[in-house]
Structure formats: structure tokens, C-alpha cells
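Let us work through a complete example step by step.
Step 1: write down the sequence.
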Amino acid sequence: MLYTNPVVVSILVMTILCLLRFNILLSILVSALVAGVMYKHGFSGFEDGLASGFKSLLDALADTTSTLITGMKGNLETSLSYILLGALAAAIANTNLTAILINGISKFLSSNRINFILTIAFVACLSQNLIPVHIAFIPILIPPLLVLMNKMGIDRRAVACALTFGLQAPYVSLSVGFGLLFHNILKKELENNGIKVELSDISSVMWIGGASMLVGLLLAVFIFYVKRRKYENTKFEEQELREVEHARNLKMTRKEWAVLGGAIAAFIVQIYAGSLPLGALIGLIIMVIFGGIEYKKIDKIMDNGLAMMGFIAFIMLVAAGFGSVLRESGGIEQLVNFASSISGGKLGGAFLMLLIGLLVTMGIGTSFGTIPILASIYVPLSLSLGFSNAAIILLIGIAAALGDAGSPASDSTLGPTSGLNADGQHNHIYDTCVPTFIFFNIPLMIGGIVGAMLL
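Step 2: predict the structure and record it as C-alpha cells.
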């Protein structure tokens, strides 16, 4: 029965805890222990007496913890990448480079509302690939532009969609920057579950996810949020106007040039070597050698990098351990057989997998951390339904990405809200989460199903 299946119960526990806003890291750990105890201890562990039952329970907890810790090594490279990327972003934030670049870009922003929004989406894309600062650029770029957006009558829901598109679509579809991280995790977890693929195999199908999101963006910008929307100018906007004037006087110094050179070097190395940790490390070394990072401030930069990305890195480690526990629990085969029997074939199976992925990622708030959990279930299920390797890549990749847009706990929604609500006129749920959920998750679901059926 499904209610005794350790995989089903642990996933439900994790999703409920996350939706209740319980700490994500602790939610995954608790859920992993639930799966392990159900497998090793079961519901009848106290039949031989209370003392014996408690000893058996403690043994099950210890064994599960050991399995989880062993499985965590599967995401060591990814976690190191996150920490080094955090240091790289902290080094960039320690200079005026981002403000100077954004000030330069803002001069080219069109007075046409649609062109303005699409330019914002393009800039957001660069934050995932060329200069991997993730959401750190938003509090610098967006607040000063609120005055201009108000004057033009731009609906901030369209800008929220543009920012979320730029934060998610590049890593879903391109093996560069954060996309290299996402695709490497996907590659590793597929191999852990018996399917050997190359990065080129992943990028050759995951473009479907990016294209699906592009459709959603265009629908939001050209059709649904094209009308003018009125916002009031507040004291905040007046202050931002003064700060914009100050930013115009900033100039590139040796420090900014050194940081820019390090960022470009990191980008080039990761492309040619296929290693994000190596690229980030070389970028940091170049910044130190040429004065982009002051020698006496290296510890501070690394601390800031850990503060920025360390928690996500640990989530990735624990998620890999959780996946290992699920694989060992013995519940996956039972779940696969049940899902195969009710799916009604490939079409139903694809829809079921993507729907579950949406719920899990909405709860966790990170598509990167969802892959190890989903792959352990979806690979055997997809194989039993007769999907090709290319279709399996697409299903797991999109299932993990589903829910990142629209999740109240995701960086892809929290980042845009932090900038657009700087003056208190943008609601996180109704102006960011709901629009991004509708315009990205629905196209991703359709693209994933159609793509999987055709591949």
C-alpha cells in the first residue's frame, strides 16, 4: 500500500514541512530519517518489547544517517561551485563594477515599455551566465528604475516575469554559469540511477524548457500585462533619483577592471574546461593578483561568499543524501509499479511526473536541490514506460525546474520582489508568485509533455 511506502511518506512529509515554512534543510533531513526508519524499522518495530523497539529504532536512525552522509558526496563538486560562485559574487559586490555596468546599460533602456521590459530580461540572463551574481544585481538595478517605470506606466508584474525568466531560463537551457551547475547535477544523478549521458546530450534537449519559458514571457509582456498600470511616486523614488545622479559619476578604476577581468576569465575557463569550480577559483586568483580583491580582505570576501551561497550548498549536499536514502529504502520499485499501472501509458506518466515535480519544487523552493530526489524515482519509472534517454533528461530537468517560478520560497521570486517592492507597491504573492507561476509553469508543463512524447 502507498501509505506504507517510505518514498511516498517521506516526500509527503518533506512537502508539508516546506509548505508550512519549516526550515528547508531540516525538512529534508527529517524526511530522510522518516524514509530510513520506515524501511529499516517499520511499523511493527516494538513487537519484541519497548527496550528492544527503541534500540531497533536508534539503530535504524543511525544506519539512515550513515547512508545519508555517504550519499552527500554525490554533490560535493556542486556545493564547492556554489561557495566559490558566492565568493566571486561577493568580490564583484565589493566594488562599483555592478553599479557602473548597470548605469551604462540603463542609458540604452528604451522609452518603449515592451522594449524596456525585454531589456530587463536580457540583463537578468547575463546574471546567470556572463557575470554570475545571481539575484545580487536586482537591488542595484531595479529600485532606481522605479521612477521611470512609474512614469511609463509599466505593469510591474511584467517586469517580475522578465526578471524571473532571466533568473531561470538560462540555467534550464544553457550549460554555462549556473546552467553548468544545473546540467552537471542532472548528469550526475542520471548516472547514479543507471543512465550515462554527456553534457551535450542534456543541452541538446533542455533548450525546450528555455523555449517554453520564452513563450510564457512573450504572452505576459505582449498580451496580458501590456496595459498601463498606475503607481504613486513616494519619498523612496525621490531618494533613488539622487543616488542615480551619484552613480553617474562613478568611473572604472584598477580595482573594477581587475574584478571584471577575473569574471571574464571565470566565464572562459568554465566553457573550455567544463568545470565551474575551476573557473571560479581562477577568477578569484586573478582578482587577488591584480588588486580586484585586497589581500587583507580575502577572508571577508570568502565569509560573504559563504553567507550568500553556503546554505544553498548544504541543501544540495543533503538533497543528494536524501536521494541515496530513497534509493536504498526499497520503496521506489513499488512506487514505480503503482505509477506505471495508473499512468495509462507515456502521456499520463509524463503528466504525473511533471505534476509531482511541480509540487516538490514548490515546497523546497530550489530546482537544483530537487533533482537528486526526483531522479531516484523518475529514472526507473521512465524506463518502465519506455521513454528514451533524451525524453528522460527532459522530464527530470523540467520536473525539477517546475515550481521554481511561482514558489514563495524561491530566489527566482524573492529576488524580483526585493527590487520591485522597494517602495511598498508590489505584492510578493499576487504580483510576483502568481504571474510567474501561470506564465512559466504552464508552458513548461506543456513543453515537457510534448517534448517527451516526441523525443
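Step 3: interpret the result. Residues 1-73 form one domain.
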